[in-house]
Specification:
Blueprint lengths: L1 E8 L2 E5 L12 E6 L3 H11 L3 H9 L5 E4 L4 E12 L2 E11 L3 E6 L4 H11 L6 H36 L6 H34 L10 H64 L12 H24 L4
Parallel strand pairs: 3-7
Antiparallel strand pairs: 1-2, 1-3, 4-5, 5-6, 6-7
Helix pairs in contact: 3-4, 4-5, 4-6, 5-6, 6-7
Length: 318
């Protein structure tokens, strides 16, 4: 287990061995645990009197975002999202135990927001456990905006590519990417959606571990989560509209092709009627050996074909 105990003293924040937690109770502290083992969690649970269900949830690390209230503490499960590269997301689940004087963070990996909050904590800019919890959640939620904005930019690029694709050569690739973006946005939406309930609990519940006036900070984080979910819904709707517009454009292109082919088939039909008529074997009726009749039929086919071409062009079918 990699555990660090950061304790706020009157003269500043100092780091202590995690084993000194019991001796430093009463001072505001942050115990950060990375890759904990079962024995480590059991030790922390005994020291801080954590509920077994909360400890089990922290051990599993596959919990839906939630906030559970117990007799002496709160258990919070949350998810950090980071855009590693365009179209590639990394999600880091972490758990928080919040007591009057201690915040315990349990995580498997690292994410930028946690490092930022630790720097602020070491600089003494965060005074209480309530504000420390707010800082962790707020910094994590703020990272969502950058992630979601990258998807908005991808949708804009794909939309321009589809609009400018006159031949339809890149249609299949663009549609595939659009459906991928829509699927990933839905995945993010499923993660962020339950976090609104977490922030609602923290902003409306009577939290004994928070000082007067600290609940309003969680209302601000809740508003940020709502904004992110609204942006996700907007981008998903935009993707659907782009797909519908693209399918409509494909249908229009197909109609244009059909009009051209129908016009050509109509022109050839007139010529086929003439040649089919003279293809009859009634020599007593049709003088097949007449040069005038032959050249007259040829002239009729040429004139009628040219006339149909002019007519179809005027109608915009060719």
């Amino acid at each position: 287990m990699a555990a660090r105990l950061l304790v706020r003293h009157p003269d500043g924040v100092r780091e202590h061995p995690a084993t000194e937690l019991s001796e430093l109770r009463g001072l505001v502290a942050w115990l950060d645990i990375a890759d904990p083992q079962d024995a480590d969690l059991a030790l922390i649970a005994r020291e801080l009197d954590l509920h077994p269900l909360a400890v089990e949830d922290a051990r599993e690390m596959h919990e839906r975002p939630k906030a559970d209230r117990y007799a002496t503490h709160y258990f919070i499960a949350f998810v950090a999202i980071e855009s590693v590269s365009p179209g590639v997301l990394r999600m880091e689940e972490f758990s928080l135990f919040v007591l009057n004087d201690v915040v315990v963070s349990v995580r498997a990996g690292e994410w930028p927001a946690r490092a930022t909050v630790e720097r602020r904590w070491r600089e003494g800019r965060i005074a209480t456990t309530g504000l420390l919890l707010h800082a962790l959640l707020d910094a994590t939620v703020d990272e969502y905006f950058a992630v979601v904005d990258t998807y908005g930019e991808r949708v804009d690029v794909l939309e321009r590519a589809i609009v400018e694709d006159r031949t339809g050569a890149d249609l299949q690739r663009s549609l595939s990417q659009l459906f991928t973006v829509k699927r990933e946005l839905l995945r993010i939406r499923k993660i962020i959606g339950p976090e609104r309930e977490v922030l609602q609990v923290l902003s409306r519940d009577d939290l004994a571990c928070f000082k007067e006036g600290e609940r309003v900070y969680f209302q601000d984080v809740y508003d940020h989560v709502v904004r992110v979910t609204d942006e996700i819904d907007t981008f998903r709707e935009l993707v659907s509209n782009v797909v519908d517009a693209d399918l409509a454009a494909v249908s229009n292109r197909l109609n244009e092709v059909v009009k051209v082919l129908t016009s050509i088939a109509t022109i050839l039909l007139v010529m086929t009627v003439v040649t089919g008529f003279f293809g009859q074997n009634f020599t007593s009726i049709i003088p097949f050996d007449s040069p005038a009749l032959f050249w007259g039929s040829v002239a009729f086919m040429v004139v009628s074909g040219a006339g149909l071409v002019v007519y179809f062009r005027r109608r915009g079918w060719l």
